[in-house]
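Supplementary Note 3. Input sequence used for the single-chain structure prediction.
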Amino acid sequence: MKKQPACLVVDDEDDIRELLVLTLERMGIATDSASSVAEAKMLLQRRDYGLCLTDMRLPDGSGLELVHHIVQTKTRLPVAVITAFGSAENAVAALKAGAFDYLTKPISLQQLRPLVESALRLKNVENPPQIQQTLLGASAPIQQVRAMIEKLARSQAPVHIYGESGTGKELAARLIHASGPRRDGPFIPVNCGAIPENLMESEFFGYRKGAFTGAQEDRDGFFQAANGGTLFLDEVADLPVAMQVKLLRAIQEKKVRKVGSTQEDAVDVRIISATHRNLGQMLETGQFRQDLYYRLNVIELKMPALREMAQDIPLLAQSILTRQAERARLPTPVLHENALAALMRHPFPGNVRELENVLERALALCDGKTITTADLCLDSADMPKSASLTVLPGKMPLPEYLERVEKQAILEALEKTGHNRTAAAKLLGMSFRALRYRLSKLGLGKTE
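The predicted structure, written as discrete structure tokens, is reproduced below.
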């Protein structure tokens, strides 16, 4: 017979405690209740629970104290805190301390049920399913990342992943999602820099029929699409300030309002964000809101650059080559020891993505059996832009000469980043929107 899950409710307000107990028991969950920290600790010693729900304000202490106690003594027990409306600081503090999630008063049953179900599903992810892609390597930096991902998978706290372009930030986000209780829900990746500013609100929150010209039917946005799963905000630093305000409210209240609607709809979404830019510096210049920063940056995950884990390059190179050869229906060539040594010496400013591009080119150039140092073309790939510009004719009008210089620099950046425009923009020191404008002006708009 399947064991009935159990939950501990801790709140000193009788009506709230009774409401929670009644709701949980209707969900088939055996529930105990306590009105103080001391009583909760006593019950935790007597019984194993699948979830603890605690108010932040208790007569003999705080919910934060109880969170610390559970994290230290019951490491596998998810604990969610109940905070007063508008107490964003308390919620963030609890999440940083190790809380699984939070609810705000007045408690919405639409938000309570998915939180409880998600927490109880943690019991079923002790041995997560095999994931097709993973973070390869035995170096200390990548081992630390894997260990951190395992911890983050057991929480619903917002995670901010930062690191250079090409370090695998989206892969890390997918692993967090796939290793946690939301793995059966959707994973919705969004490139924040690729959405026109005037469409952002409707893309994120959806819209009602007739809300604006062209809105011929109701449509869900990213938040609704990610309901029950994870919303991955890539290049979150590219969000305009006006959209940052609206995103902050959606994250805090766990509700969104479609464009043209008069009511808000509850959404159950975990937020994971990423960027290669320094959000701390953007705070100082006013480009990024401090309150949103603290909401997104509850837990940080740093992705190491490839040069910090050079010992992993042989394993990564072999895995990438095997995958590329299978995709091209070719036999996997052997990497000559000199070519492997050259790869391990290379600085790889484009990280794993650059390694993939180098190997893909080498696969096309090699004799089909062995990849040599010459096949890697690392020297030409590393040639400074200033050197390549000398081939341009000097006797031409200055505007035409500058246009050719700019076009060549952009094409080189696109080539180096595998035609990833966001990464190319970073390499060129400009915003994504500025690059898109320059591509259009130079007649490169269709470049892929």
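The radius of gyration is 26 Å. Confidence is low (pLDDT under 50) at residues 380-394.
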